[in-house]
Amino acid sequence: MRIANLRVLFVDHSKVFRSVWERMVLHAGHEPLIATDGLSGLEILQNQAIDFICVSLSLPDIDGIRFTRQVRTLPRSREIPIVLLTSAQDNATRKRAFEAGVTDICPKTGIEDLFYRASRMAVHDNQVLSGRVLYVEDSKTVTKVMTRLLEGMGLEVDHYVSAAEAFNHFDVQRHDLVISDILVEGDMSGIALVGELRKQHPDKIRTPILAMSGMDDAIRRVELFRLGINDFITKPVIFEEAASRIRNLIVQKQLFDQVQQQRIQLYEMAMTDPLTGLYNRNSLAEFASKISSAANRHDMDLSVIVIDLDHFKEVNDSHGHLVGDQVLASVGASLLSACRQEDFAVRFGGEEMLLILPHCSLNDAADRAEQLRERIARLKPAGIPISASLGVAAKPPGRAIELQQLIRIADQAVYEAKASGRNQVVVHDTGPKADTDKRCSSAA
Ligand SMILES: Nc1nc2c(ncn2[C@@H]2O[C@H](COP(=O)(O)OP(=O)(O)OP(=O)(O)O)[C@@H](O)[C@H]2O)c(=O)[nH]1
What we know:
The chain is of the alpha/beta class.
């Protein structure tokens, strides 16, 4: 969340402290207004719009508490945070200060912390957010007030009178906040809505829920929090309170989304080979056992194709490493475009790549390998004719086999394809007639 430029009034009689404060406020990109005593501070307030006030307890004329009391009598001054600067620990003074309308009390020495707090507290409710709210309310009057508040905050509102209708239109990707009245008309109550939303999407932070009710019943509130709401507002709604609660929930949710997004990006970076765009070898360890166990448990088809470029060292030697990289990237893109949704394409080693094909029989994998061989031979990346040797292996029906073992068998088939002259496909059948059933296809 960006903190907007603030106009900060600082009232203190110490020259040194005033100049330190002024520099800090300027440094943070805000506007300092300085007063040496309480009365000149009040004069500034009468003539200028101020977002935040810091006032010392002891001033040459009126003290900080009297100053605060007078500020609070000025029109529209209720929302301005006032921090009283004092190291006084006695409870009587502190109590008097809060009764006068002070927002917080800080020692003068904690200026850095104070300034951070100043920025946080003066975040104005009129700072525009962006986001979408699913709003459930059956009272026309409350709906009008709340919609005006939400739209004024920059939020888009999907309003429903019934909880069931709202539930049907809830979209975890689109909605940044759910606000629901607890007693709404129709078969589904607001409480049931909270329960259903949390049942379907248990991650509480993902879409926060703010419950509203005219019944300020502590036991009901506890039940709602247990059910999964993130916050609660009692009706009639106090505008500033509602705006601050809504703002907190939305900002927190959007920050969480950002962190999640970054986590996914980091994960993808860690799992992807940057040159070819294929999964890298590390990622294989992540999903190999899941793929094997799913295939073995349900006895489904599972095939692998190992693809090894022929004489790739010569490409590097004759055209340079960068052109070699270009060739690898082009082959990687070609493999990816040949993949179905359920396939995994992995860069296995330098110029060795691997396709894992769930729900694909040995015969189909052999056909796809031959198509790939032809495709690679036609590719001519950077104008260079290339070819590949391919090995195919598949899980025999009715028999359990680990993916790593299939890869070893397909690797062996590649070795044989190389030995037989390269640019060809060797298929290893691991079925009952394994030793006798080895098929080859080639360009020749
Ligand atoms: N440009 C480039 N070359 C790489 C990369 N990774 C591995 N290589 C090269 O790939 C070549 C592989 O050579 P070899 O293992 O001898 O295989 P080959 O020349 O393809 O010969 P055969 O496999 O027997 O047909 C080596 O020269 C490696 O330096 C890479 O990321 N970029």
